[in-house]
Amino acid sequence: MKVSDKVVHSLRMLIAEKNMQVGERLPAERKLCEQLGVSRSSLREAISQLTSMGILVSKVGAGTYLQQIPVNWSQNQIVSPLSNLIDQDPAYRFDVQEARTILEGGSAWYAAQRATTEDLALIRKYYDQISYFQSLGDDEQASLADAKFHLAIAEASHNLVLIQMMRGVFDLLQFNVLLGRRKVYSETHRFDQLHDQHFRVMDAIERHDPDAARDAVCGHIEFVVQQVRMIDEEEARRQRASRLNRI
């Protein structure tokens, strides 16, 4: 791999790690060179490549700006195929939950060790948003806040691979959360249980207890799986009973 290609990769990872949004200005060249440990000529070549790809735009005298979020390979490679599988067979959502257990359990474990004050504030922000939108009966916004809560935990791990993986499957995560919420959050006592589970995850991370954070996340996801299975079975029994009554 050429030096410029390595710098392009490092620059893309930096954009992802900082969660930069379209329109944001990149740090000055000198600062970027220090952060990436590269020469100014290599940095300029990398910026030129990303500019030609439409990801960056340079404005004379004003600096370089993010023009387009870099396309994440996992968006097409992972999300679309799995979304199609869920459409074809709803049982695949349980595979998503199993994958979440592995991915998010590890993320929470590292987050409890590495979370900064800013990370903790963001996690708590989305925790509060879940309750707020739930109180309004806005399932879509509540599920978005729920997904962002879990994503914020992954970002607090400060592991770029885990962060990229979670961002790559974010749409799938939100879709899966929404499906679960429509079932599990339909009853007040279940919402209270889930709210308490989210709190325990957040509390363990704030206390910097890796094992408790991992166990809380995995326990939360397992609870959702069990509840959805139970609700599905109840619905199936009611449908069978309804068909029998029509005979």
From TrEMBL:
<keyword id="KW-0804">Transcription</keyword>
<dbReference type="Pfam" id="PF00392">
    <property type="entry name" value="GntR"/>
</dbReference>
<dbReference type="InterPro" id="IPR008920">
    <property type="entry name" value="TF_FadR/GntR_C"/>
</dbReference>
<dbReference type="InterPro" id="IPR036388">
    <property type="entry name" value="WH-like_DNA-bd_sf"/>
</dbReference>
<dbReference type="InterPro" id="IPR000524">
    <property type="entry name" value="Tscrpt_reg_HTH_GntR"/>
</dbReference>
<dbReference type="InterPro" id="IPR036390">
    <property type="entry name" value="WH_DNA-bd_sf"/>
</dbReference>
<keyword id="KW-0238">DNA-binding</keyword>
<feature type="domain" description="HTH gntR-type">
    <location>
        <begin position="1"/>
        <end position="69"/>
    </location>
</feature>
<dbReference type="GO" id="GO:0003700">
    <property type="term" value="F:DNA-binding transcription factor activity"/>
</dbReference>
<protein>
    <recommendedName>
        <fullName>HTH gntR-type domain-containing protein</fullName>
    </recommendedName>
</protein>
<keyword id="KW-0805">Transcription regulation</keyword>
<dbReference type="GO" id="GO:0003677">
    <property type="term" value="F:DNA binding"/>
</dbReference>
<dbReference type="Pfam" id="PF07729">
    <property type="entry name" value="FCD"/>
</dbReference>
<dbReference type="InterPro" id="IPR011711">
    <property type="entry name" value="GntR_C"/>
</dbReference>
